[in-house]
Structure formats: structure tokens, C-alpha cells
């Protein structure tokens, strides 16, 4: 994992501030700046504050910087019998383009955003959901998905079943998620 | 259930607005103004917007008007084997005084708020948790709890396991919860 710069961290904090969501100093000091070991965080990354993650439910507050993409992944059923993670994204500020597996394959010519250069093979889900503040969408377990912020970035609440991020399956084989969830 | 006045509804909407949480027109039109059939909503009541409630998790945005109290209740285990509801309250705006069952009984002389006049018998949980914006607390299943807003009211996010409000057990036998959850 390459070094996350202070400037990058300040940009993330600035977006939380713009959303008017009140966060404690402790929360701001413990933001998870996830680069998925791709060393390309300004393009592919995700920033999040974990509010709660127990064996019943999970809630996070996520930030994407302008045009930043969270790489495609899915939440599988677990070997211990637990069903894969189900999650609801609610846009709080800015806008986000969410892509989930649909009937048709991803068509990079017709979706509203551009794919990360050179990573086209690692994005396959093509059903577009455009979320503006106050809008939300629920992603079923085991459905591949990825999402990209609009030009101003986005603040997104996630309500979900418990997070076991260590079991997430990413389409890009180069991804290694460093886990901070538990 | 007595009529909820337009003025009351506007006060609730005003608090959501003050919190800067973006809500859709549809959500604002479908606020659940719960008076628990006590016909005393300005003192005992709860106002909420249900974001999502499925068989995995639930999320709500709640409002209490100034000094309004949500009556004491608990979430029992269900007969079908489901564990009682666990919930995390996160204060977003204003302040709320939360009371949960603790080692000592409720002492109305030492807690920070006053009990609803004439309803003293229906409030028994006495462990006080004072939540300001950005602060949160998780209530275990089957633990009696009630909560009262401070002088400016409160906006509180609830993250939880699924809501089955029809099975909630209230301490006040006069309470009948009209269910809007599913």
C-alpha cells in the first residue's frame, strides 16, 4: 500500500464536512482510506467511517472523492452458513453512479461514467442506478457491483447486514483488501 | 388516536430540516407520527421515517420534538426463534437522554430529565446515556429503554436488526402501537 497523503485525507474530511454530518474527532481520526492495494487511490479507492458492525447489522458513512471509483466486488455466502452481505446505499451529498449486475453486460459506451483507464476488464456490472441526495438502492447478496462518484464527489450512508469484508470477492485479481472492520 | 395537527407535523419537518439531512418529498409525506394511542403526542410520541426494513437489517431517521418522550418498551425474542431487536441510536442533531435498564432502579430525583406527569409508574429504566450529535449507543435485545429529547428536540438515526414493532412490549398497558413498518 502506498502512502496516503495528508492532502488526500483532507479532501475526504472536507467532503464529510460539506455533507453536514456530525462526526466525532475520534471518528475523523480513524477514517479507513482503502486503496485496495492498487496504489491508485485517487482513481480507485473508498473512504469510510464505521459506525457499528456487530453480528446483527452494520452501518457506515462512506466518501468518494470526485470521480473516484470503488472497484467491482460482491459479497458471497459464507462457509459457516451466513448469507452474503445485503446493503442499502443512501446518497447524502453529491451524486453517485452505482452499477449492479443486470440482464445485459456492461456497455462502456452507454453508461454515464468512464471506466478506469486500463482496468476495463475488471468492471462487468452494467445496470446503472444514479443516486442523488435522499435517494437509495438496496443491493442483494452475491450481486457484483461497483460505484463511481460524480464530479463533486459523494457522501453515502451504508445500512447493511454484518460486514465481513475479508470475504469480499473482487473482479480485479490484483486487489487485496486490508481489513479494518472488526 | 387523536388527530395530529398540521402545526405538529410542521414542527417535526422543521427539525429534519435543521439537521440538514436530505429527505425526498415522498419520505416527508410519509412520516410516521406515532402517538402510541395515548392521545398525548406532544409529551409522549415519536416521529420517524423508515429508510429500509428487510429481513436482514433496518434503518430509520427519528425526530423527537423538544422534551418529547418515547415511552418505555423492549424488544422481546420472537416465537419463531428470531432474537429480539438490537438497535444503535446515533444522535445527529440536538440532544437526547436515553435510559436503559441498569443495576439500579430509576431515581427520578437524580436523572437529568423529568418524567411525564402522571405516568411515573410506566418508566423504570434508569441508566442514563446522554447523546449529543455524533454520539451513539447500542441497546441490547430485551433491555427496557425510553428516551427524551432535550429542550431543542433531537434527530436520531437508528441502525438495527429487523423491526417487528408489532411485538414491542411497552411498560404502559394503555399503549397500542399502530404499525406502519411493513
TrEMBL record, chains A, B:
Keywords, comma-separated and alphabetical: Carbohydrate metabolism, Isomerase, Manganese, Metal-binding
Obligatory cofactor(s): Mn(2+)
EC number(s) stated in the UniProt entry for this protein: 5.3.1.15
Family: Belongs to the D-lyxose ketol-isomerase family.
Protein name per the record: D-lyxose ketol-isomerase
A GO term for molecular function: isomerase activity
InterPro entries for this protein: D-lyxose_isomer, RmlC-like_jellyroll, RmlC_Cupin_sf
Recorded catalytic activity of this chain's protein: D-lyxose = D-xylulose
First-tier enzyme category under EC: isomerase
Amino acid at each position: 500500500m502506498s502512502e496516503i497523503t495528508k492532502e488526500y485525507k483532507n479532501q475526504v474530511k472536507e467532503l464529510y464536512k460539506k455533507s453536514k454530518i456530525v462526526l466525532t474527532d475520534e471518528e475523523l481520526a480513524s477514517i479507513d482510506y482503502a486503496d485496495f492495494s492498487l496504489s491508485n487511490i485517487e482513481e480507485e479507492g473508498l473512504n469510510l467511517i464505521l459506525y457499528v458492525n456487530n453480528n446483527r447489522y452494520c452501518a457506515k458513512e462512506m466518501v468518494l472523492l470526485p470521480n473516484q471509483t470503488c472497484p467491482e466486488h460482491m459479497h458471497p455466502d459464507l462457509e459457516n452458513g451466513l448469507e452474503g452481505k445485503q446493503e442499502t446505499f443512501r446518497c447524502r451529498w453529491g451524486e453517485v453512479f452505482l452499477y449492479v449486475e443486470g440482464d445485459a453486460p456492461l456497455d462502456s459506451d452507454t453508461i454515464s461514467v468512464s471506466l478506469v483507464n486500463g482496468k476495463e476488464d475488471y468492471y462487468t456490472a452494467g445496470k446503472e442506478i444514479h443516486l442523488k441526495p435522499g435517494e437509495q438502492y438496496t443491493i442483494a447478496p452475491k450481486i457484483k457491483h461497483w460505484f463511481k462518484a460524480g464530479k463533486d464527489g459523494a457522501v453515502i450512508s451504508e445500512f447493511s447486514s454484518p460486514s465481513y469484508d475479508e470475504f469480499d470477492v473482487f473482479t480485479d485479481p490484483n486487489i487485496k483488501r486490508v481489513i479494518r472492520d472488526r
